[in-house]
Amino acid sequence: MKKNYKVFFSVLILQMLMIEAVVAQELTLRMLIWEGYAPLEARQAFQLMVKNEYGVNLKFEIYHASNPDEFFNKLRKEEVDLISPAHNVPKDYRYNLIQNGLTIPLNIENIPNYKKLMPTLINQPWFTDQGKVYAVPVVHGVYGLAYNSKMVKNPPKSWSIFWNPDYMGQYTINQNYYELNLYITALALGSSQNDIFEYDKIKGEKLEYMLSQLAVNARELWSGFDQPEHYKNMSLASTWRFTFPEENEHFVDWKVAEPEEGTLWFIDTMMLGRSLKNQDLLRTLAEQWINFLLEPENQVYHLAKKIGVCPVTDEAWELYSTQVLSDGEREKLERLFKHLIPWRILETRSRNAFHLLWQEALAERSASDQAQGTGTGNDSE
Amino acid sequence: MRVAGTVKKPIWQYDVDFLEKYAAILIDDSSLSSVTIFDERKKAVVRKGKSETRILDNGTHWDLQEEVYFDGDIIGKVVIRFNNSEIRKLTGHMMFSDVFVILAVLVSVWSVIWILIMRYVLSPLKVIKNSFHDISKGDYSKRVTLVQDNELGPIVQEFNAMVDQVELRENALRESEVQYRNLVESPSDIIFTANVENRLEFINSNYERWTGNSKKGFIGHYFSALFADSGNASSLIPDSAGGIDYDMLYEQELLKNDGTVIPVELNFSPQHDSSNRIVGVIGIARDISSRKKAEEELRKYEQMVASITDSMLLIAPDYSILAVNDAYLESVNKIRGDILGSQMQNIFEAKDFQDQFQPHFEACLEGVSLNTQALMSIDGAPAQYIAISFYPIIEVDGLISGVVVHMRDITEWKKLEAMLQQSQKMEAIGTLAGGIAHDFNNIIGGIIGYAEMVELFDCPSNPQLGDRIEHVLKGAYRAKDLVEQILTFSRNSEKKKEGLNLHLLVQDIMRFLRASIPATVKISITENCPDATVWADETSIQQILMNLCTNAAHSMQENGGNLTVSLEVEDLNAETAKNLQLKVLGNYVRLSVKDTGTGINVSDMERIFDPFFTTKSIGEGTGMGLAVVHGIVRSLHGAISVESTPGEGSTFNILLPQFYLPVVEEEHSNAGNSELAHGKGCILFIDDEAELVQFSSEILTHLGYEVLGKTDSVDAKTTFLTSPDRFDLIITDQTMPNITGLDLAKQFLEVRKDVPIIVCTGFGFPNFEQDAIELGIRCVVKKPFGIRQLAEIVAREIETTKKHY
Known about the structure:
Chain A has helices at 2-23, 40-54, 69-76, 178-188, 199-202, 205-216, 280-293, 296-307, 314-324, 327-337, 348-372, and strands spanning 26-33, 57-64, 82-83, 103-104, 128-129, 132-133, 135-148, 171-174, 220-222, 236-239, 254-256, 263-273, 340-342, 378-379.
């Protein structure tokens, strides 16, 4: 009897341990994304949902990207499961994320909100290959022209304001996306929206001179996502934002301008890395996370309003434009939408030439700083 | 060449990484010194070279060039530079080994010679030297003895005989010295002697008594150590006693042991030997403490007078100048010797002397101190405002022996006073002009409105009337532009800058200036520069050219000449930019105005940009022209420089940063003959000018609208609040009694958020438009406006409202 008693307790303890092991299954989703694309409130809500539905403790391991090369490098080493590239990255010749097998197709059944995307964003060739969807847009935004309305009397109507001597040393632009600085220079010089993506159509001394002036006269060059402190004491800036979060003191008086030449447009997506190929549950959770990000509340209150980007689903846009934006802001965005220039995949020659020109402009900026013996050039990471 | 084939694709694709690596591989070849790869625009994309090869290479190299083709077009070039560094290295090694062998042989030969010299020459010489040393120390008992009798023996014998003679003379000298010492110890002065090297040999006991120092510490040292300013004392006798001026008295300070000094007067006498050669000096120092104290007092008073920056003169009753301070000498650029003794009449113009100086001077001779101010010329210099004070010099016996005249240049102060007055005057004119302009705008608005109505309704049936009414409208629009200019002036606001192409503007301005420049001046414009675009406002460029050309014409008014205006674009280098205090390098547009007139005097050159500086006669110029030009150029981030040769002419160069962007030509409306825009809707029109309300209502009614006109803002407010949904558009004046247009609009928008409002203003203040738009105003219209403008705006706003709401 005494022996049976011991066996009974041993079996009971073993069973408890097994149950505990199943209940406490822990998974980690590793993400390389732009700052702000995995808001804390959304993560907590999703983790709770996963726990309730699957009994899994889901952890997020988040890395913030500063340029598209990082997506490629981390995917190759299988160090991340989820990335947030812009629409022109997956099929860029430098990465070929789909053809090289670095990313895997998405199961759209796990992303029911996919069908609610705005018509201009759904099933675009950027994200699909052989009928399969590889990327889902989560936000869209601009490389826009921002101005401090206290310092700039009239809203700028052209990118050419960056070369206005009155604002010399009073603006900040992006350091890493060199092609965008080439585009705005070409636009300011009068090139058409189609021509700016081809080096042979815009090349020349004027372009090189203007680009170097843009780099030399910038007070600061920012990287990654433009932060509030980049705007301190500036008159002008290039920005990823459609709108500026009101709660931040550095953004008071900052507005986005409507350049007549048009504003450069990106769509940021979510893609699954090949590391998830054989992890069925984690892959499903990653797809459901993408779906969760497309929920109107997350789109509007945790992404658009906080960062200044724009929602991608019709439902979210309706909520955002009626509940968050003022009439003036909504009208302004609608006007801006009419003049958007989507980023394109560049040919090898154009991309390399743009890179070379920007490197020369940066060298001139350094030489100018040394010649002047002053520190106008601050480049922040 | 295979290289060209290899780099073809990378060059086309600007694959700099590949090109860098490929060039790095090539440059590993020791026969190459550099590899450079150019793109299609001849820009070096990659450049690799060897620094060590560059040092060895004395220019013996050769280049291999190959153009790179892609699809039949040249897309780049590869330049490979070879050198002869290997041959040079081999030659270097051979030369090194030869030099080593030669050095080894030389060292061996030198060692053998050295041993022989030591044995037969240097050792005996050492014995002689040791004996000499003892004798020179005073041991005359010593004699030289050599172990070996060689060629040095006779020399040693002669030397020993000489030592015998010296011993005898030394004894006689000691006795003489005792007598000499007694002689120099008795006087009250300090007496010392020094050798030709200035080293102290003797000093009497007065030195120890005066200073408390022990003289032993100074014997053998430079005598200058006795004095506080030892550096100067040493320099009295720099090389030898022969350098001293024995007729001169030197002033020095003797250093005491408590750190204080005794001023002394020092004189020197030469000290001779038996051959009458100078062997040193005898110095005598005399205490001059009392005299120095008196001199110091006097010097303080002199310094006080000398430190005054105003001119001071001491004048005798007969007008002769007795003394002047340094400030006066500097102001007239003369030396004291030229001034003292001359007459005051000579330094002033005759009239100035009689009117401004003589009466006050004579009154001062009666014992009265006086002050006056006058515009006078001193010693032929340009006239300047001078404040003059006269103070009598009253002697002990009460007689006045002369007058101290104190003169201060107050020209700058007078200029500032004039600038202040000018500034206040301009401000008053601005305020007045602004007030008049507001009323004038309303009057013109009426004229334009009714004239356009006549043109619209009556002219089609009467073409003659059309011609006449066109003249009325032209005049009215000119008046409108004039009012706009007055308002711009009165606001003193920042002018609107834009990308301005000087190419056309300069020609326009020069055509306009031609009429005001004498026919004897030939004007030419030399420029072929379509890219001469700058960031500026048109008025500023006009002001710059008008001022410079007017000055140029003035300098050629007597003999005529050539006035040349030229434009060019130049790439400014770092040195030039630094000299011109320009912060930004790059391309600049150079606008030059050159004349062949009288030129600018060198003495005037530094002041030409000063406000109110002018060389013109009174009434011909204000002296503000170049100052204004300088100010404008600086505000445009540019620089101005001038080159001039008196008698030959001047050139003013203005550098402005080139603005690279395309200049957007303003769109000129050609809607003049098109149909007026019609529409439907109810409009509330508010303006305190009844004329304006009447004609605007009439024309809008004609265009199909229902118009309710109001001249009272309070009445208009009541009308709107009674039935806010009745109106499709509100048009209101800004400046009205009781409630302004913006306040009225604010109250309307609170009641009905979507009502479109247009505000009209003839006197917009800075940021008015932006403030209005932020408030929710649809559009701001500048008064006066024409019928066509009104019709278009009304139709547009009503249409926009229908679409969006």
